[in-house]
Amino acid sequence: MDIIEIIKTRKSIRKFEKDDIDIEQIRGIIEVSLNAPSGGNSQNWFTYIIKNKDILNRMRNEVEVIYKKVVGKDAPGVYTFFNEAPVVLAVTQKPYIGSLDTILEKTDKNRNYDRKFIVNPGLQSVSSFITHVLLAVHNEGLGACWMTGPLVAKPELEDIIGIKSPDNLVALIPIGKPVERHSKTSRNGVTEMIKVIN
Ligand SMILES: Cc1cc2nc3c(=O)[nH]c(=O)nc-3n(C[C@H](O)[C@H](O)[C@H](O)COP(=O)(O)O)c2cc1C
Fold first, then answer.
1. I need a labelling partner for 155 at 20 to 30 A (CA). Which of 28, 69, 147, 170 fits?
2. Residues 34-82: pLDDT tens digits?
3. Closest protein CA for atom 11 of ligand 1
């Protein structure tokens, strides 16, 4: 597949075959995704590759417990299915502080706030890495889903995985051979999504 075909045909996969996935294949996917752009070339991401079923089951259980506690209902399946994949990536964000941040912190609190929490180049950088991972997974004929729902239990998941401050867990990505045969989700037309300023 060429890159355009890969982009056009990628979709979130939430059901997986039981087949194991070779760790070398995952290493390869991550290696190619390291080419993603990042603010100041900070490469402020790190990936835990979790295959241990006991750990994945503990993570799911924690999401269910915390969701019930804070929402008062059972967690939806779209928050909890990740433990059914043969491998799950836990992607963390390392602190990103550009030189501009250090300056704005002293000179302009409002612009500093906007840059940190709205523009958030650190999180944009990790997002670009995750996008590369999803496309590389699809290129390998595997399926994946970008997940932030389970992070309702972020501190508990970080404890189980062993993620320590100042790193922050930002997403889980279950990966496996796809079972799902659903069609692609719809998209807005390009005219609705652009404004040309000549
Ligand atoms: C930041 C982010 C968080 C997401 N979190 C979840 C999630 O927790 N559970 C889930 O099933 N899908 C999650 N998704 C997948 C979206 O639902 C999916 O990308 C969207 O519906 C478009 O479908 P597609 O990926 O098949 O094109 C997430 C996607 C993104 C980008």
1. 28
2. 999 999 999 999 999 999 999 999 999 999 999 999 999 999 999 999 9
3. 78
Contact (CB, 8 A) for 153 and 62: yes
Domains and CATH numbers, the chain: 3-193 (3.40.109.10)
What is the C-alpha to C-alpha distance for residues 115 and 107, in angstroms, rounded to an integer? 13
Residue 129, ligand 1, Cβ within 6 A: no
142 C-beta closer than 6 A to ligand 1:
no
The CA distances from residue 125 to 12, 59, 91, 104, 135, in Å, are: 21, 26, 12, 20, 16
Examine the pLDDT at 135 and tell me if it is beyond 80: yes
